[in-house]
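Hello again,

I reread your note about wanting to compare the complex against the isolated chains. To keep things tidy I'm splitting this into two emails, and this first one only covers the full assembly. Below are the input lines as submitted, including protein chains and any nucleic acid or small-molecule components. They are followed by the predicted structure of everything together. The single-chain runs will come separately.
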Amino acid sequence: MSVVLKIKEVTAVAINQLYGIDLLPVDILVNATKPEFEGDYTVVLFAFIKQLKKSPDALGQELGDHITTENQHLFTSFNVIKGFLNLTVADNYWLHFIGDQYKNISFGCAPANGQKVMVEYSSPNTNKPLHLGHLRNNFLGRSIAEILKANGNEVIKTCIVNDRGIHICKSMIAWEMFANGATPASTHTKGDHFVGDYYVKFNDEYKKEIDVLKTQGKTQEEAEKEAPVMKATQQMLLDWEAGKPSVMELWSRMNSWVYEGFDATYKRIGSDFDKTYYESNTYLLGKDLVETGLAKGVFFQKTDGSVWIDLTADGLDEKLVRRKDGTSVYITQDIGLAEQKQKEFNAGQSIYVVGDEQNYHFKVLKLICQKLGLPSADGMYHLSYGMVELPTGKMKSREGTVVDADDLVDEMINIAKQKTEELGKVKDFTSQELEELYNTIGLGALKFFLLRVDPKKKMVFNPEESIDFHGFTGPFIQYTHARIKSILRKSGTIQKQETGNEQLGTALLPLEKELAIHLEMFPVILNDAATEHDPSKVAIYIFNLAKIFNSFYTEHSIGNAETEEKKILRLQLSQLTAQVIKTGMNVLGINVPERM
RNA sequence: GGACCGGUAGCUCAGCUGGAUAGAGCACAAACCUUCUAAGCUUGGGGUCAUUGGUUCGAAUCCAAUCCGGUUCACCA
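Full-complex prediction:
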C-alpha cells in the first residue's frame, strides 16, 4: 500500500477516534508538501473544519498529535500552518521500502486480475502510407495495452484494416491507367508508398478532368459527378462488390503490396496485433442486427425503406443504420464487429484508439449498442486523441504537408546516429550494436515526444526544429538509465542486503529521501495511467524521476560514498531507479540502453 | 445553427475530483568536466492562467456569458 493511502487511512481513523465522525479515506486530501515547508506529505484540513467546528489550527494540532503518537513507526514529526497538517515520514519507512523493492524487477506491476481487455488501434487505410498522425495512434495503442498488462489485465491487441471501398478503388484505377504494369519491385519502392503514389495520381487526374468539364460549361458539382475517372472508380466498386475476378485479383495484389510495406513499418515502430480484422470481411456484419433493432423497436423505418435510430432524446440526432437500397453503412458494421469481437474474445472492456474527429461516431455507436442490449456495450471506451498539427495548421495531403512516418523514423534514427558519433562514447560497439542503439534512441525520442502529452489534446509538431534530445525527452531518460547502469557495473553487486536497511542507521539526506519518495509513487502512477487511459502520466513521472536522480548523482558520490552504509543505500536507490525507468519506458514502448 | 473540445511564460506542454507564493522543457544569460557517462548539474530573467461576472475561508481549476481556434452533426468511410 502506498504511503499516501496509509496517511489517508490513518487520518480517517484519527478523526473517528477523536471526534466520532466517519470519513472515507478517499475523501481526505493528501498532497506532497511544498518544498518551502517542513514535511513530506500534507493533509489539507479545510474540508473538515466546518463539520468538526474547530479552528484549522486546533484541528491540525490535535490530529497531528494523535496521528504521530499512534503511528510512531510511520511519522517522526508534524507541523501545522494555516489549515495544512505537514507530516514527516520516518526515514525507516523509506529504508524498508528501498530494501524490500530494489531487487524487484516487477516493482509497480500488479498481479493478474483475471480481466480481459481488447485494445483496437492503428487501423490503417490500404490506399496510402502511414503518417505522423498514425504514429501517435500506434504508440498510444501499444502503450495503453502495455499499461493495462502491467496492471494485471489480459490484453488482446486488434487492428481493423480498412481495405475496401471507394478510396481503394481510386488507387486501383490510377494504377490501371498510369502504371504500365509497374510494381514496387520493378520501381524499388516500398509497397505502401507505391500504392499511395497512385492515390495521389488519381486525385491529380480527377482534378484535371473536372477542370476540363468546367471549361465545357459544367458546374463544379456536375463536373465532380461526371468526371470519367470517378465514374470508372464507382463502377469498379460495384464490380468489387459483385466479386468480378479481374478486379478482385488487382485488389488483392495491390493490397498485398501495401501490407508488405505496413509490416516493415510496424516491425520498426513495434506495433503488433493478436488479431487483425479486415473490412472486406466485416463490412456486411451487423445487417442482422438491423432486423433485431427493428423488432425491438429500437430502430424505425422511413417510408422510403431506410432504417434509422432516433437519438434526439439523448441530445444527438437521428442516425441512419441502413440505406433505402438495403446496403449497410459504416456504423452498422461497427456494431456488427463489436458483437463479433464479443463472441470471439468476451472481453470485459474494449478500447478503441481512434482520433477525436470520431467522438460523435463513438458516442452514437456505444449508445446504439446499449439500446440493442449488446453485452459488449457498457465496456466500450473510445480512447480519443487529438490531431498532430504543424505550426502552420493541419497536415494536408493535397498540399504535400503530410509528415510521412517512414521518413520521420529515418530522420530520428539519423539524428541519433549523428549525436552519438559526436559524443563518441561507444566507439567500441560493433556495427550491429550501433544500429540497435541508434534505433533505440531515435525511436525513443519520437515515441516519448508523442506520448508525453495528454492524448486528448491536439499537439504541434515542428519539422523545422525536429525533436529535441535534451530536457523533457526520451534520450534524456535513456541517458539517465545508461548512467546508472555504468555505476552498477563498476560498483559490483550490493553486499550485506540481509541485514535489513533499517539498521543502516544513517539519516537520509534530502535528495536521497526525495528519490525514495518519488520511487514509492510508481505503482500508483501506473495504476492511474491505466484508469485514465493516459500514458503521458507515466512519461511525466519518469522524467521527474530521472531529473531527481541526476541531481542526486551530481550532489552525492555513489560508488565512493562517505561510508559503506551510504554506498549500499545509494546503490540500492540507483538500482531501483534504473528498474523503474526501465519498466516505465517499456510500457511506453521505449527501450533503454545499457550504454549510450 | 446544435453538440463537443481547447485558449496557462517568446515556443512546446504540466497543473484542472477547488488549497500554501502557478510549474517543467526549449530558447536566452551566467557558473560547473584532474574523481561514478556534461545527451548532465546549478543559478537568473520571463505570467492580466483569453475576457467579464458569479459561487466561497480560498478559483488557473467550479458555474454563466462573451471573444478566439478546432472537431462534428452525410443514404462518405
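For quick reference: Residues 3-89 of chain A form a domain with the Gyrase A; domain 2 fold (CATH 3.30.1360.70).

B.
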